[in-house]
Write a structure and sequence with these properties.
- The complex is a heterodimer of chains A (127) and B (401).
- Chain A is mostly helical and 127 residues long.
- Chain B has 401 residues and is an alpha/beta fold.
- The radius of gyration of chain B is 25 Å and the shape is globular.
- Classes of the chains: A mainly alpha (127), B alpha/beta (401).
- The interface between A and B is large, with 52 and 46 residues.
Chain lengths: 127, 401
């Protein structure tokens, strides 16, 4: 096994045009996981997952502002530490979601959407 | 083997007479019947079932949520199979399931949701925000082979969602902030690990994690760590004294004044005298070694690799400490290092390297974090196999006695 295999990077672009009809559950929505290392293919998300990402991003911004304000009043208060704990919680949640999507290529709504392709959440998010 | 009073040869061979004994049922009747081949199969099936029914429970303490994904995925990969969220359930479930292993996030045992914690003025780190009675009850039930309806804490909404059914797996991993906090839960653990990240490294990692997010800045990241520190030091940190293995992550000593946190010094602190756990060692067990593998046989690039190993005490316990400072940047460095370590519990030469390569895109794959997480995974597999063997043997002994 060559040493370079472990550390090679390469780009993978799926050849198929995107957005298969909901009925063909077998058609892959995204490039499957590539070999070790490497830039992942652009993975199309379900709308619901994209919305979760957006929501978490907004919450981070909002909660950082809240914490800055609350701690400005009293740095040693319980309110202050709870506020920063909330920031930590949503920051980690966003990072976990990002990891799932981009590194593991798993959309959390994958199974739900295979069962319920007609729901709004399960529309493919197009940029 | 004592001969008990069974009356006819026929009853020895017939299996139906066990079910309705005219005399008061006693252990010795079973004993006698186990000598026949048919009955032996049936009672052996029962014995092996009960050994397999008991789940092996591993605790992992770590800050920042569940989805210590990297560690968990390395661990489940050692056992074989990929860990995935439960199919068809709540998409915000924190649980991971593979063929052999189920990983439960202890945040699911929050007794207070985000609003509740805000009202009471407690962080998630505070024991008051967690239901340890439920945690104990359910971990015990799973360990004894019963399925449970476990709550789900939704990190997106901050609410407690309806429960999901968890079936007892072969290996149950409970990960989160407080796996070793409650004494009853602690005693259910067959093995426990504490991931101890130093402040400098924590800061560097959180910068990497958060800087791209709108709203975050160096100040906010720093403030968040500082604000959580008192609760962390009071409730989470003390658990490390109970851990069978501690993975300590520190800044490197190979680069003066390095503050990027990219090159790491990682220490694997292994408790001595833990049942079914034989610490990894370098060259000569129990001695003190410093080893720089780079030299004539192995060329490393800057800053190189440095190992040390030796006995020590940790919170009053005898431990062995294996330490790696630096990075791998070639496959042959990894194999060279693996070939010099002992008691790795690998099933074949090169298994550690193979596991590292399998997940070479994961963070820590080129340094001690990935290496020691992989090794701990192999140790847990070894522990699991030994426990199963010992339980089966014990059950057979009990049947003979």
């Amino acid at each position: 096994m060559s040493a370079s295999l472990a550390l090679a990077t390469f780009n993978f672009r799926p050849a198929l045009p995107f957005a298969p009809p909901p009925s063909s559950a077998s058609a892959p929505r995204s490039g499957r996981r590539t070999m070790a290392g490497g830039v992942r293919s652009e993975m199309k998300l379900y709308k619901g997952t994209h919305m979760r990402e957006q929501r978490l991003a907004e919450m981070i911004e909002k909660k950082v502002a809240e914490a800055t304000q609350v701690c400005g009043e009293d740095e040693t208060s319980d309110e202050c530490k709870v506020a920063w704990d909330e920031v930590e919680e949503v920051s980690q949640a966003k990072a976990d979601l990002r990891l799932k999507i981009h590194q593991l290529q798993q959309d959390p709504l994958e199974h739900f959407c295979q069962e319920n392709p007609e729901t709004d959440e399960c529309r493919i998010y197009e940029d | 083997m004592a001969v008990s009073t069974v009356y006819t040869v026929q009853s020895l061979n017939s299996t139906c007479s066990i079910s309705t004994p005219s005399k008061p049922f006693s252990q010795k009747h079973i004993l006698f019947f186990t000598t026949t081949k048919r009955a032996l199969t049936r009672s052996c099936r029962q014995i092996s079932c009960s050994a397999e029914d008991k789940t092996v429970v591993i605790g992992l303490a770590a800050d920042s949520g569940c989805g210590k994904s990297t560690f968990m995925r390395r661990l489940t990969s050692v056992f074989g199979g990929a860990a995935e969220p439960p199919r068809g359930g709540n998409p915000d479930s924190n649980t991971l399931i593979s063929d052999t292993t189920t990983v439960i996030c202890l945040d699911d045992y929050h007794s207070l949701d985000r609003t509740g914690r805000k009202e009471k003025g407690v962080t998630a780190l505070d024991p008051k925000a967690n239901d340890f009675d439920l945690m104990y009850e359910q971990v015990k039930a799973l360990k004894d082979g019963a399925a449970v309806d476990k709550p789900i804490y939704n990190h997106v909404s901050g609410l407690l969602d309806p429960p999901e059914l968890i079936k007892p797996p072969k290996i149950l991993v409970i990960e989160g902030l407080h796996p070793m906090y409650d004494e009853r839960v602690r005693h259910l653990l067959d093995f426990s690990i504490y991931l101890d990240i130093s402040n400098e490294v924590k800061f560097a990692w959180k910068i990497q994690r958060d800087m791209a997010e709108r709203g975050h800045s160096l100040e906010s990241i720093k403030a968040s760590i500082e604000a959580r520190k008192p609760d962390f030091d009071a409730y989470i940190d003390p658990q490390k004294q109970y851990a069978d293995a501690v993975i300590e992550v520190l800044p490197t000593q190979l680069i003066p004044d390095d503050n990027e946190g990219k090159v790491l010094r990682v220490r694997l602190i292994m408790k001595e005298g833990v049942k079914f756990f034989n610490p990894v060692y370098l060259f000569d067990e129990g001695s003190t070694i410093e080893w720089i593998p780079c030299g004539r046989k192995l060329t490393c690039s800057y800053p190189g690799i440095k190992f040390s190993y030796g006995p020590d005490t940790y919170y009053g316990h005898e431990v062995s400490v294996l330490e790696m400072d630096g990075q791998f940047d070639r496959l042959d460095e990894l194999i060279y290092v693996e070939s010099h370590l002992s008691n790795l519990s690998t099933k074949f030469y090169g298994e550690v390297t193979q596991q590292m390569l399998k997940h070479s895109d994961f963070p820590g794959s080129n340094n001690g974090t990935g290496l020691f997480q992989t090794i701990v995974g192999l140790k847990i597999r070894d522990l699991f196999e030994q426990i199963v063997v010992s339980r089966t043997a014990a059950a057979l002994e009990a049947a003979k006695a």
